[in-house]
Amino acid sequence: MTETMPAVINVSNYIDGGWSEAASGATIESRDPATGNLVAIAPRSDVEDVDRAIAAARAAFDEGTWPATSGRQRATILLELARLLRAEAEPLSRLVATEMGKPIRYVREREIEPAIDRILFYASAARMIRGEVTASAPSHLLNFILKEPVGVCGLITPWNDPVDLPLRKIGAAIATGCTFVLKPASDAPASSMAIFGLLDQIADLPPGVANGVVGDGAVIGEAIATDPRVDKISFTGSSEVGRRLMELGARTFKRVSLEAGGKAPVIVFPDANLEKAMDAVAVGIFLYAGQSCTAGSRLLIERSLHDRFLDGLRDRAAALRVGSPLDDATQIGPMVSRRQLDRVLGYVERGSAEGARLVLGGEQLGGEWSSGFYMAPTIFDDVSPSMSIAREEIFGPVLSVIPFDTEADALALANDNEFGLGSAVWTNDLDRAIRMARRLRVGDVWVNTHYVRLAESPFGGVKQSGIGRELGMEGLDAYLESKRVCIDSSPTFHIR
User: Which CATH architecture has domain 265-447?
Assistant: First the structure.
């Protein structure tokens, strides 16, 4: 990768240490959502290509030395990957901004830098994988637990964080000694497959350990999920697709980790720092044009604060700078595709039809932004908890405002949803913060902040938001199997 991107990037699959096109010769295109210009041409792979990739991963695991490498060796590979990522951070940031529309300032600060940090964490964690010994066993028995790599992993990732999300899974797979086949999103294939250009430079990484195949999700994802040679699936995306992959994976008893949809409630109490809360709520929903699974899409506001807080939100939303994703000053870029924009506009129509009051936005931006998929920051008031805009994941810059009267009301409203990924609580009452954190049915609770994530802490959801965790040592456990070993040193067999 260079500082100046080619006019059109030709993306290839990466299988068994080499680059290849789809066996059929078919291709897909990715386009700049700000301009409509062609960014990349990538393979439209099919089952034949997936078969080759899985075969390579299976052979590297079953026949090679990779699973037996030491934690130190795997850590060295991850440290080299982090070094290469840092060296390519700027061109990679430009590629992501161009291909999926995320403002480059946020790509640098909130995708590439965190991805590097997570790879560094995995490098450390690779040397900290430990089993256990049963010290209380009888003296003639040595009973211990080994931690071993689960095997071949199918990694399926979305377009909204096309570098960070694949690297979360790739880092864990390498740290634990697994092999993998990555299926990246078709809307941003060049960004995700650029990772393999870095992995290809690491001499100590054996062929077949890392494989990437681009293509339609229904074809590639289902081929991975149904292949008995794949031991584990790690998926990030919609709850609907996650449910389908889990059903397919169950046929061959695959280990399945799912990080699926979200409908994060942001709960604001009167004793909060309201100016800070207004800033955070605006950023928490309109950042990335709302294309985040932990976007704060439901504002639960104490009734006495409603008018003041809504006025402050409108002012902040109006002040956010819309612009080219490649402009450092841009805060709001386009949505990733016409399909995604139309989906969000459809929810705006449904919200109005169901009786919610549109108080800001609700339309595609025109004028100088008419060539791109730009959506105005949108706020609905008078939202009932039963409305589709309050219940379903929109994945766009649409905020539903719902008032509450008591702490119990706020908790009931927050938990009254099939999703349970993240939530934010705004209060300066520590007792209340702890009460709410304990009773919210979500995987992540932020208090007086939003969008803070640490590599050391597990991330994932409950209910329809997923199964299992990524990041932290708990995230590594999903890529490991426990094997019990019992050695008997007594001279006679214990059963007579």
Answer: 3-Layer(aba) Sandwich (3.40)
